[in-house]
Amino acid sequence: MAMSDLSILAALKVKMKWHEGRQRILSENVANADTPRFQARDLKTPTFRELVEPSRGTRLRPLRTDVAHLDNEPGAAADWQLLPQDAAVVLEEEMLKMSENQMDYQLVTTLYSRSLGLLRAAVSRRG
Hints:
By secondary structure, the protein is mostly helical. Helix content is 50%, strand content 9%.
């Protein structure tokens, strides 16, 4: 069993993918702020069950055989539920969401790397 197969590490990977997708959606909101009738969107926050569900990401997906094909990797924004917002884009709110999302992503990546470090120390012979 590889270390990356552990459920906690798999859940952290899914959370990182969610943050990447959310950052993409929020940046689209900022980019389209001046577009008439454009409404802001956001991603639904995954529940704990969705993060640790073992079947997540095991669906059959089309093979990407050319760089011109659409990207459909597990954890891409297409895998998450988009939530339309009621109003037009408010740049200040979107920028706050983006910075919050960035801090959360950094927290998850720190947890992931520290968890890997602890596991490596536990299985090393020097320890």
